[in-house]
Design goal:
The complex is a heterodimer of chains A (about 300) and B (about 325).
Chain A lengths: L2 H8 L2 H32 L6 H19 L2 H22 L9 H23 L17 E3 L2 E3 L1 H23 L1 H11 L1 H6 L4 H23 L9 H16 L4 H21 L4 H15 L10
Antiparallel strand pairs in A: 1-2
Chain B lengths: L5 H22 L3 H27 L7 H17 L4 H23 L4 H21 L1 H4 L13 E2 L2 E2 L3 H24 L1 H11 L1 H6 L4 H27 L4 H4 L1 H14 L6 H19 L3 H15 L4 H8 L6
Antiparallel strand pairs in B: 1-2
Helix pairs in contact in B: 1-7, 2-7, 2-10, 2-12, 2-13, 3-4, 3-5, 3-10, 4-10, 7-10, 8-10, 12-13
Classes of the chains: A mainly alpha (about 300), B mainly alpha (about 325).
């Protein structure tokens, strides 16, 4: 514990800017993954344990695509689309067979997919860590805000994630598809009886969730290293985000992802050994005060 | 429904199983097999105690491995820091673990299903990060090295593999018998009623949270006992014992073996351990093979092996 360092940081603008930026990076990447988890849970009442795998594969696809095409934009796009497709295949081929059965049976299938793809990644890309490196377009001098260093790529990453949050929020509240998704979250039988093709709707939900996770993986690749186990740690954190925010709530996911990001950003200064523990304590505290999560509806 | 006295029959089955297991080394000594039984006794206790929560009461805990790790660390620390004899240290470790389960349970059991699963997971991860960061006590990510002096107890010389094998087998069978007794007792019946219809149970005057807290505590105690055996086997305590994959393994053992059969989790643990031993001999891609096997079970049988067999040949009781 180093509260002096934390106090010193909070009174220095440069340190506040740097830590806030790194907290925002963590938070925004978490939001992209957790938005998919919470969307899938909201509509299908399925806890997708394979979501971290989507994120990992997104990162690796972007890594390879960048190597082939040399364009980061194409890499990000191909990772997003590949993982959206992967989400649909995963839903159709596996999860749709266990709808309505035991939660643990769904967990078992997800975990099997996690195990299989962790090893497939080892076979295809090797077990070692890969560094994608900053794309050439972003190898420019950093921005200085109040004395704090902000690499331009960070600003772009935060901007993209914020844009996604807005599009997702508006899409769910304004468009016809979004309204159907929200209706299906409340009463899927009724939505189906009203003539909506729920099979297609479920596939779309998985496509959106998978695509967001793939996008997060592609955006994370330049700032984090790629390794076969990278899916699991973000999976646990995105669960924490989902639970804190209230399962099924996109706004809750955004708020709690930013909260976790800030705890990480400033926790590394104040509690360098115990940042992970800090996050679990936050989660336990919030669940005790509001058992349904910050934005969850109490049942 | 059942003829005769089920408690006596269970005891007879346990005694028979114990005699067979203890007789095997007299006929044929195989270090690999004895290792397997030692690990199975620890894992079997963990998985069966988890099933008291999952299968009996309908409480899905993602963090049950916490108490396995807790038992292992409590036992190894007691053995290293004091000169208490081994049985006293083991009882103490289980008692401390039971108390920890009571505290964690008191916070968790009032939450609804999904949130219960995740808060238990959070407690497990919190416990794991405490172990990693409290280096002066736990040795951090290196674990508690330096070994446990395996003192002699009741004529068992635990330094020898044969005696450790016999000790673990006896403890595990007694532990399983106790769990069996709990799950067939009126209390166990009450838990199944809560699982099937909690409103009805509540109307009948059962205090739901109290019954759930009891179950959580009992399950934690037996997981701690499994952890003690695991610490004896590895002669120390390592962060892996408290890490999430153990909770996952226990859940998969329960699911693979059969959630509605008492011995299902033990069978599931045996399948997982055997698969691990066989597959790692041929390939380093253990996860790939295990994943495919799990998929085949989950999509093919749609239930655990023992549940499937009991459905295929009905009429036999468990």
């Amino acid at each position: 514990m180093d509260l002096d360092a934390l106090g010193a940081c909070l009174t220095t603008p440069a340190c506040v800017v740097t830590q806030t930026t790194s907290g925002l990076i963590v938070g925004m990447l978490l939001f992209l993954v957790a938005a998919g988890v919470t969307l899938i849970f909201g509509v299908l009442k399925i806890v997708n344990f394979a979501h971290g795998t989507f994120y990992m594969l997104g990162g690796y696809v972007a890594y390879t695509a960048l190597g082939v095409t040399d364009s980061y934009a194409i890499a990000v796009l191909s990772a997003t689309l590949t993982m959206a497709l992967f989400g649909v295949v995963f839903e159709r081929a596996l999860m749709s067979r266990v709808y309505g059965s035991n939660v643990l049976m769904q967990l078992l299938i997800c975990y099997a997919v996690v195990l299989i793809f962790d090893d497939l990644v080892k076979i295809l890309w090797g077990p070692e860590f890969h560094a994608m490196g900053m794309p050439p377009a972003f190898q420019v001098p950093p921005l200085f805000i109040a004395g704090g260093v902000v690499p331009p790529f960070y600003a772009v990453l935060i901007g993209i994630a914020a844009l996604i949050a807005i599009v997702l929020g508006l899409g769910l509240s304004m468009t016809r598809l979004g309204k159907t998704v929200r209706a299906a979250a409340i009463n899927p039988q009724m939505v189906s009886a009203l003539g909506v093709n729920t099979t297609l709707l479920f596939a779309i939900v998985f496509a959106v969730g998978g695509g967001l996770a793939g996008l997060a993986g592609a955006l994370a690749a330049p700032v984090r290293s790629l390794s076969p186990g990278m899916g699991f740690s973000i999976l646990i954190e995105s669960f924490i985000v989902t639970v804190i925010g209230g399962m099924g709530s996109i706004a809750g996911a955004l708020v709690s992802a930013l909260l976790i990001g800030m705890v990480r950003g400033f926790g590394t200064i104040g509690f360098p050994q115990f940042t992970d523990g800090l996050i679990y304590i936050v989660m336990i505290a919030i669940l005790l005060l509001r058992p349904q999560g910050l934005f969850g509806r109490s049942s | 429904m059942k003829k005769g006295r089920p408690a006596l029959r269970d005891a007879a089955v346990a005694a028979g199983a114990l005699i067979v297991v203890l007789a095997i080394p007299l006929v044929h000594r195989s270090p690999a097999f004895e290792d397997f039984i030692i690990r199975l006794s620890a894992m079997g206790l963990l998985a069966t105690s988890l099933n008291l929560l999952v299968g009996n009461t309908g409480m899905v805990s993602f963090g049950h491995g916490m108490f396995y790790g807790f038992g292992a660390y409590a036992f190894a620390l007691t053995m290293q820091l004091t000169d208490l004899s081994l049985p006293v240290a083991a009882v103490l470790a289980v008692a401390v673990t039971t108390f920890a389960a009571l505290c964690v349970g008191a916070i968790c059991v009032r939450l609804s299903t999904d949130y219960f699963a995740f808060i238990t997971l959070a407690f497990q991860m919190l416990f794991y990060s405490v172990i990693i960061s409290w280096q002066s006590l736990t040795g951090g990510d290196q674990g508690l090295r330096g070994g446990i002096t395996r003192r002699e107890i009741f004529g068992f010389e635990l330094g020898s593999q044969l005696h450790l094998y016999q000790f673990c087998a006896v403890v595990a069978v007694l532990g399983l018998l106790a769990l069996r007794h709990i799950s067939t007792s009126p209390f166990g019946q009450t838990l199944r009623m809560i699982r099937d219809n909690e409103s009805r149970a509540s109307f009948l005057g059962i205090v739901l949270w109290r019954a759930r807290l009891w179950t959580f505590t009992i399950a934690g105690a037996f997981a701690g006992l499994g952890g003690v055996l695991a610490a004896l086997f590895v002669s120390g305590a390592y962060p892996e014992l408290a890490d999430w994959p153990n909770s996952g393994q226990a859940i998969f053992a329960v699911m693979l073996g059969g959630i509605n059969s008492f011995l299902g989790p033990v069978l599931g643990a045996a399948i997982l351990l055997a698969l691990n031993d066989v597959v790692t001999r041929f390939t380093e891609y253990y996860g790939l093979v295990l994943g495919i096997v799990i998929l085949a079970f989950a999509l093919g049988l749609r239930r655990g092996v023992l549940d499937f067999l009991r459905m295929a040949w009905p009429g036999r009781s468990r």
